[in-house]
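Contributing: when you submit paired examples, paste them exactly as shown. First protein:
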Amino acid sequence: MNSFNRVIFSVVAISLLFFAMSAAAQIDKKPYSEWSEKEAQKILNNSAWSQTQTVTDTSGTFNSGGIQQRRSGSGDVVNVNFRVRFFSSKPVRQAFSRLIEIQQKEKLSEPVAAQLKALSEVEFSDHIVISIDCDAPTATNKLQLAKAALMTSTAAEFKNNTYLLTKDGERLYVQDYQKPGKDGFGAKFIFPRMVNGEPYITSESDELVFRAQVGNVVSINVRYKIKDMMFGNKLEY
């Protein structure tokens, strides 16, 4: 079992729920154990390693327990947020770890603290991992359909329409897929880190695009600036 799977399985019992917040911060200027909740949320939702694609849902209804219910006002507009993150980057995993510490009021058991430390420090030497999670301020059909698509889709269904794209047009298609688990980190799209013996992403890559089709719900299309992904004097992705 590679380092990616060992760490994912070791933290599977830790559940984490979070919503979008924003706060500008020089996060690499201090240890992640000192990050505030706003700083950690910033890393996870709007940073060099994480982008949020928002889709509006005007359906006005959602399904609950097989019963269709109507929100107040059929014309209500609800934003469904798709969080697209470089899970293989240390800043993202450190932000997850920090939020768990804060939510547990920093009274973690030694085993859980050790698992979080391993999660935040492990090196992803073989893979690039992009995670997708989605949330909304209230339940909507689109949110439920998106969650269902992420839960039931297979790697084979993503292999032809999910890829990374560099500025020079070189596509790197997804190698494997893991559906969302109890860890709360979302669905995981796994790509090889090396192509023909060379890193797919380098400091000269300039810009990187991630594209994926999530069921019939949304086409994910987000961009990352490689020069902004430096963390601790190292390119983190």
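Second protein:
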Amino acid sequence: MPGSAVVLLSGGLDSATTAAVARSQGFELHAISFDYGQRHRVELEAARRVGQSLGVKRHVTMPIDLRSLGGSALTAQLEVPKGRTHEEMSRGIPITYVPARNTVFLSLALGFAEVTGAADIFVGVNALDYSGYPDCRPEYIAAFEALANLATKASVEGRLRFKIHAPLVNLTKAEIIRAGARLGVDYGLTRSCYDPDPEGVACGACDACLLRLAGFAEAGLTDPAPYQR
């Protein structure tokens, strides 16, 4: 029988679906979220709501100041791209990439898993309908899993063999949404926008919003999240 699993829970559509997948597989969920200085901190409240809705046993929110590194429109005073076409999104790595973010997040999730005694870590990265981030690819996940089993006391002593689960990595956004809908995910609780207004309402024009809206349209469903336009 599955035991405990650590889920990286951002409050967005993908991480909520990933948590629901882990729950459907019988895992007891321990969630970790990160307050890293992101401009879209509204996602942290969304993560709390999603965690409650999915029956998470323990939910830890860790503060990390990635603003001190800069280099991203999500952590520095740089303009978030708006209104880009799918072709434009598919070219290059955008300014919304946060340097080393998933490596930092997975490292801390690994520590949480080791202390919790959880061999399984779930992360909602996606290599198809995404914004070109290099730390969302299958080869990155495989490399981090190898690292996890070299770098921890629990693995060296043979007590845990870590597995990094990325169940959405090869799915389109529409496929992700359909899967979540089948698992009963309430997407009205989630937030994905990179540049929401002060009340947390999504802009409807950044890459995250456009990919999300296109995914709902392709899935034949209506996005229940609020939008400015």
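If you have annotations for the second protein, write them as plain sentences, like these:
The domain at 4-219 is CATH 3.40.50.620 (Rossmann fold).
The chain has a mean pLDDT of 94.
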